Amino acid sequence: MASDNKKSSYISGRESRRITRFNRRVTRKLEKERADANKDTALYTTKMKDPRNVVEFDNVCTYFFSDVGVVKAVDGVSYEIPVGKTVGVVGESGCGKSVTSLSLMQLLQRPSGQTVGGEIRFNLGDGTAYNIVNTPNAIMEKIRGNRISMIFQEPMTALNPVFRIGDQVDEVTLLHHPELSKEEVKARTLEMLELVGIANKEGVYNMYPHELSGGMRQRICIAIALACSPSLIIADEPTTALDVTIQAQILDLLQNLKDKLNSSIMLITHDLGVVAGMADYVVVMYAGRVVEKGTTDDIFHHPSHPYTIGLMKSKPVVGKKVEELYNIPGNVPNPVEMPNYCYFRDRCEMQCERCHGDYPPEIRISDTHIVTCYRYFDEGEIVGYPKSVDVEAL
Ligand SMILES: Nc1ncnc2c1ncn2[C@@H]1O[C@H](COP(=O)(O)OP(=O)(O)OP(=O)(O)O)[C@@H](O)[C@H]1O
Ligand code: SF4
Ligand SMILES: [Mg+2]
Known about the structure:
Bound molecules: adenosine-5'-triphosphate, iron/sulfur cluster, magnesium ion
Largest sheet: 9 strands, mixed
């Protein structure tokens, strides 16, 4: 087994040089296209499919051009985030949750990380939208932190240890509203600190991050994220570093502020309990693709994809005694060489005849519920197939 693994991950010097040359050629070309500040607006302006959505991911493909080959971290992902709603994104580690959100912010580690296909439509609220995939850096700087903001997993590393809290919150307002005076900016920061439940706002304004507790630091990160009243807040594991009581307080706070600002939340988490309590819609990802999406009720009460069924079986239920919690057997396929059949097939206990064919289509099984699995092929309506990008053609 060990020698098999060694063999499959072995790359000859010649192959390695070929990969390096290929990566350099492709990423240079893509970077050149992105750097064009005078790009015609028509190339990145589009229309939402449904104006009730703030963001629409449409067959998004984000790949990493790594030394061992192309990692298809996100490959044909489609889902929507409706205005004023919370969408929970779940799935096991490495399935592409963070990479999807980083693609939306254009914060991928470049030049190796590139969104090579699909559209990410962001609603501008005036009947038009930006296709973030083609939006130039100069425009992204106006959107990031202003109209879309992000709360990271680890509040200590998200804050700069050498600057006072006040300066760090002020910076966001100053950057996006240069017309405000220093006093107005400070007043706005104090207002935000109060809004996120900091009692001693004047004191905290002058403190450094190390003088605050974990829960307070995460509140500061939320204040920074909300300083410009964004229409979308991306919360990537916002409470993983906090204890359970603080976790509940932070989630309540986030939910209340979202309603106050009429923002939407993209909530990325491993914690199904958090999703059940907060989300209106849930997207389940597996190996860089969406395997199931629907309302929270659809996913928790009628899980339909074998992976989601496994996830639900593996969560502890209060009052239900079990000898051992269920765990899904097997592993995720190698991201550099994904199979051309259902990515879950090697772990699936519910396979049928059709599963030996190509990757399954997205199938609508109710108005709100879509599953990517052959088990529903005869009863549901086929919505489409997730599309990969042929990297050799780039
Ligand atoms: N900078 C990078 N270079 C190469 N591959 C990367 C890079 N960042 C992410 N990946 C790959 O992309 C895939 C998806 O990663 P991602 O961070 O989105 O996972 P995730 O679903 O957020 O996992 P977690 O729950 O652990 O945060 C992984 O296979 C990872 O190895
Ligand atoms: S398509 Fe087949 S192999 Fe894939 S999850 Fe559905 S039943 Fe399992
Ligand atoms: Mg992540």
